[in-house]
Amino acid sequence: MGSRIKTMKRQAAELGRIRTGYSRPNPNPDKGPIPVMSKTFVLTSHSRDYVAAAAELYGGKVEQWTPQRSSVAQWRVITEAPELRAILPAGDPLSQSYEMWGGGGCERRCDGEFESIKRQPCVCLAKFGEDWHERPPTQVCRPTSRVGVYLPDLPDVGVWRLETKSYYAADALAGGLDTVLQATEGKGLLPVRMWIEQRTRVVNGKTKQYQVVMVVPSLPKLRHALSGPISTAAALDPSSLDRPAIEAAPAERPDYLAEARACQTADAVREVWRRANVAGHVARDGSDELSRDLMQISRDIAAGVDPGTGEMTGDQDDDEQGPDADGVYDVEAYDEHDEPPVADASAVSWPQAAQPGSGARR
Q1: Orientation of helix 266-278 relative to helix 289-302, angle to 10°
Q2: What is the mean pLDDT of residues 150-155?
Q3: Are 359 and 277 in contact (CB under 8 A)?
Q4: pTM higher than 0.85 for the full model?
Q5: pLDDT band at 248 (very low <50, low <70, confident <90, very high)
């Protein structure tokens, strides 16, 4: 059996990233690229195959691209789809921190109170006060939110990392995910829809534009998101949660006639009818064909006739008396307009729940 390093993170491979913006060249060669807020998601990856598959699924043009402060070229597509369908992995998929990056990498990473790299209290808060986040990113840390999601219609097993540096998106993203995590406890997969909303707000008399990344459960009803974890099959096909359950195939109907023919007594045949009545396979008043057939079998057995062969049973033959001294058989004559006699009158008048003990269908 294998062993693991207990302090090592166990995370799926990162296949690419989901971004909310891109950059375009600056007409002034002395200045850096101009950032652009995208109306749709931008997917980037080191693998052209992944980006090409995304372009085929979501629309857009595959192009080579080199991130800022990097010399390694990647691939990207500015998608045309208004939203992405994704799956959140189990656990808490959201990672957030205030960060400042420079030429040497991440210089500060803070939770709003404590800066973890230099292990000191929040620098921005101490320097600029509670509204420090309204200052330009060149002066203060930027709120950075990362969520790893599966894109189930793209190839290979791994996550795509959604990343946004919007202050207001960070708040909306955390609030939406926390609502769902409270219900599911982070157990199991959860299908979601993601899209970018462009919003505006007025600060000190100036209108500012900002983005909010919406991540909401992709389920038929709210109750499905709040009723606990769902199965992997439901995460891949959320519409299945709202489909009526497939009814079980009806049980095979017993062969009541065969059972009755195997009975030894008329009462045993009546019990067969009672079971058929409970199962709803005969009319309660005995007017159906099956009831009539069962009653006839009961009559035959009571009269000493084998219901399987139609012949008189051996016991009946032994009891039959021969002719008397004058060659006359002792038989009872009856008129042709009369009902023939029966050996057991109770076998003829069954229903009313086939008598003893009632046996009415429940």
Answers
A1: 160
A2: 94
A3: yes
A4: no
A5: low
Q: State the Cα–Cα distance between residues 142 and 158, nearest whole angstrom.
A: 27
- Cα 344 to Cα 178, 273, 311: the distances in Å are 77, 17, 18
Q: Which residues contact residue 39 at a Cβ distance below 8 angstroms, ignoring those fewer than 6 apart?
A: 196, 198
Asked if residue 33 lies in contact with residue 26, where contact means CB atoms within 8 angstroms, the answer is yes
Q: Report the phi/psi class of residue 147: left, alpha or beta, with left for phi > 0 and alpha for psi in -120 to 50.
A: beta
CA angle (322, 323, 328) in 5-degree steps: 150
Six-digit token string for 210? 């900002």
Answer for the pair 221, 183: CB distance below 8 angstroms, yes or no. Answer: no
Residue 344 has pLDDT above 60, yes or no: no
Residue 182 is encoded by which pair of tokens?
Answer: 């409270």
